[in-house]
Structures are given as C-alpha cells and as structure tokens.
Amino acid sequence: MKSRLSILIISLLLLLTMGTGCIGNFGLSGKVRKFNLDVSQDRWGREIVFVVLYVVPVYPFAGFLDMIVFNSIEFWTGTNPIDGSASVTPVAMNEWTTEDGTKVTMRGLPDKSIDVNVVRPDGEASFFNLTRTDEGVTARDEAGNVIISAADLPMDLLEGRF
After folding, report:
1. Which residue from 91, 61, 94, 93 is spatially nearest to 76, judged by alpha carbons?
2. CB 138 within 8 A of CB 149
C-alpha cells in the first residue's frame, strides 16, 4: 500500500513539473469556458453547468490535454492547434548596450517579425517592427505605418558592399 502511494505522489510531482515548462493559451479549456458562459445569462445557471462540467470531468480533462499535449505543441510550433492563436511567449529576445549607452532590445515574434526597441542615453525611446516581405525587409512604426522598405533603397547604396 505504501509503495502505491509513493508511486502516485512521485507521478503527480513529475506531472506537475513537466507541465510547468511551457505556458500556452489553454485553447481547449477556453472553449469549454466559453461554452459554459454561453449556456445561460443567469449566473446560477452557469454555476450549475460549471459544477456538472467539473464533476463529469470535462474541465479537468480539457486542462490536462491543454497542459500536456496542446500547449506543448504550441511551444514547439508557435501556434495553438485548438484555436490557431499565436504563442503567448516571444520566440527569441536579444538585448545589448552600444558604446554610447544606447540600449537596444530585439524580440522575435511568432509571426517571424522582429520588434526593436531603442532607448538612447538621454531617455529618448523609439520602436519599430521589422517584417520580411517579397522585396526584402519593411520597417514599420507602432501604428503600422511603413518607415522604410528595402524596396525603397537605391541599389547604388548596396553596390560593391557584398
């Protein structure tokens, strides 16, 4: 009896530690919750549905599948397979300070674009997003307006440099 309890406790601890590696959107749990909220406008009706979905174990099963299967897929692919949403976490982040004290932070996003934040020593900050296009790379400001595109650059600037 003691060995079964030990195995159960160790299994639960392993399960908990395996699930902490990647947090995702919990798409399946979100769909169950949305279903619960759409069933009734009455809060008591929603509470009854919630208890039934928990006892039947729809909520625990959805949470388990999200934690072990779907969030792991989201972690490795960048997209949640249930709702198609992008990953919660950025793909990569790089940060450095130049010789003059300017701090530059680049963060890769799931859509393969790069957010760039620049903070100068005087505190002036600027932001732009780099996106790959068929013509090259396009830089956009926070509002999505094109700042410059590789297609806009005169080719004589690049001649002899590569």
Report:
1. 91
2. yes
CA distance 5 to 25: 33
Per-residue model confidence as pLDDT tens digits over 113-156:
888 888 999 989 988 888 887 777 888 888 888 888 776 555 55
pLDDT in tens, 72-116: 777 777 777 887 766 655 556 778 888 888 888 888 877 778 888
Domain ranges of the chain: 2-77, 92-157
**Sequence-separated (6 or more) residues with CB below 8 Å from residue 39:** 45, 46, 49
Give the tokens for residue 24. 């995702």
Decide: pTM greater than 0.70: no
